[in-house]
Specification:
Distance between the termini of chain A: 20 Å
Helix content of chain B: 55-70%
Strand order of the largest sheet of chain B: 1-4-3-2
Mean pLDDT of chain B: 90
Distance between the termini of chain B: 41 Å
Number of helices of chain A: 1
Largest sheet of chain A: none
Strand content of chain A: under 5%
Largest interface: A-B, 14 and 23 residues
Number of strands of chain B: 4
Low-confidence stretches of chain B: 59-71
Order of helices and strands of chain B: HHEHHHHEEEHHHHHH
Mean pLDDT of chain A: 77
Number of helices of chain B: 12
Order of helices and strands of chain A: H
Oligomer: heterodimer
Radius of gyration of chain A: 8 Å
Structural class of chain A: mainly alpha
Strand content of chain B: under 5%
Structural class of chain B: mainly alpha
Number of strands of chain A: 0
Shape of chain A: elongated
Low-confidence stretches of chain A: none
């Protein structure tokens, strides 16, 4: 499932929230 | 000692809520009732005021096609169409930011981060639109909603006047919010309720339900105790709050249907990648 949800996965793994939204 | 633990959990989640969500219910209600020292919000009630208020909305990275077309003599209908789409895109950008805020809040729930990573993804995928819908309630009254961090008030009538299916998007949220606001929950109650929603053990495809249900049970106990303390005169409030979870699921199902319709009817529509991930195969 995490493969199909790469951005959500990244948000969960990063310690801080800012990602390339 | 057990009650002390539950109170400590409520305090922790409230602090995380204040840290992660920029517009609290307390602030939103102050703006809506005019009891704030800040300027009153800019009111959007028609296409003209939407164009005027657009500079406040976070859509700077999107091309302002409408403004470019204006100088080349596009018809009013074409311009209106573009303004609606542009507004929809800016709503998407804000929604994606809000998903990021909800993720950070979820990660702060004790025990969430040690759940199976696939299950964390599932809980967010299915929970996030419910959480965002419930968080809209404090921003709304029967006449309209605050947007853009409380800088703008958009009227319910204007949202209803947009072309279909844009016009169908917000009305169910207003109907839900007006009833939900009658429960008069405050930000500390909301923090616990959001955690309960996120920790739903019946989401499709969960691999390991038991630890999620155990975490949720603990938060439920904390919510029950907190509501009794915070609202001593409100009878059966805990049960009433939990009943809202059923309405929330219907609200999300409707929202997903409208997005599907939009994808079919709007050739120019481009869904934000994060929202695409969440919507894909959802119900």
């Amino acid at each position: 499932l995490k493969e199909k949800h790469k951005i959500l996965h990244r948000l969960l793994q990063n310690s801080t929230s800012p990602v390339d939204l | 000692p057990e009650a002390a633990d539950l109170r400590s959990l409520a305090k922790h989640l409230y602090e995380s809520y204040l840290k992660n969500f920029p517009l609290t219910k307390a602030k939103a209600r102050a703006i809506l009732s005019g009891k704030t020292n800040d300027n009153a919000p800019f009111v959007i009630h028609d296409m003209k005021s939407l164009l005027e208020g657009e500079q406040f909305i976070n859509c700077c990275h999107l091309p302002h096609q409408g403004q470019q077309r204006e100088s080349t003599g596009a018809t009013l209908t074409e311009l209106q169409r573009e303004v609606e789409l542009r507004f929809f895109h800016s709503c998407q950008s804000r929604s994606a930011e809000a998903v990021s805020e909800v993720t950070e809040f979820a990660k702060s729930i004790p025990g969430f981060s040690i759940l199976d990573l696939n299950d964390q993804v599932t809980l967010l995928k299915y929970g996030v639109i419910e959480v965002l819908s419930i968080m809209m309630a404090p921003l709304m009254n029967k006449d309209g909603t605050l947007i853009s961090y409380g800088q703008i008030f958009m009227t319910r009538e204007f949202l209803k006047s947009l072309r279909k299916p844009f016009s169908d998007m917000m009305e169910p949220k207003f109907e839900f919010s007006v009833k939900f606001n009658m429960l008069e929950l405050d930000d500390s109650d909301m923090a616990l309720f959001l955690a309960v929603i996120i920790l739903s053990g019946d989401r499709p495809g969960l691999l390991n339900v038991k630890p999620i249900e155990e975490l949720q049970e603990n938060v439920l106990h904390s919510l029950e105790l907190h509501l009794k303390t915070n609202h001593p005169d409100s009878l059966h409030l805990f049960a009433k709050v939990l009943q809202k979870m059923t309405d929330l699921r219907q609200l999300v199902t409707h929202h997903v249907q409208v997005i599907q319709l939009l994808k079919e009817s709007e050739v120019d529509l481009c869904l934000h990648p994060l929202l695409q991930e969440i919507m894909r195969d959802l119900y």
